[in-house]
Amino acid sequence: MLGFTGPTKVAKISVMGHGMGIPSCSIYTKELITDFGVKKIIRVGSCGAVRADVKLRDVVIVWVPAPIPK
Description:
Domain Nucleoside phosphorylase: 5-61
Family: Belongs to the PNP/UDP phosphorylase family.
Radius of gyration: 15 Å
Distance between the termini: 34 Å
Helix content: 10-25%
Protein name: Purine nucleoside phosphorylase deoD-type
GO molecular function, one term: purine-nucleoside phosphorylase activity
Pfam families: PNP_UDP_1
Structural class: alpha+beta
Strand order of the largest sheet: 1-2
C-alpha cells in the first residue's frame, strides 16, 4: 500500500491508504500499532448515516462507531 512520511512542526506523520473494507483497515491498523508503535490513528473516509438531517456532502466527525441493531 502506498504511503508517505514526513515531518511537521511538532511530529513526523505518515499518510497512507488501507484498502477496501474493515478487514483491510483492521490488518493495517494492527500492524501499525504492533510493528511500528503507532499511538494515534486518524481515519478519513466514507461512512453511512441514518439521520434525515445529515445531507449529501456534510462533514461528519465520528467519535465512536455504533452498529445498527438488526
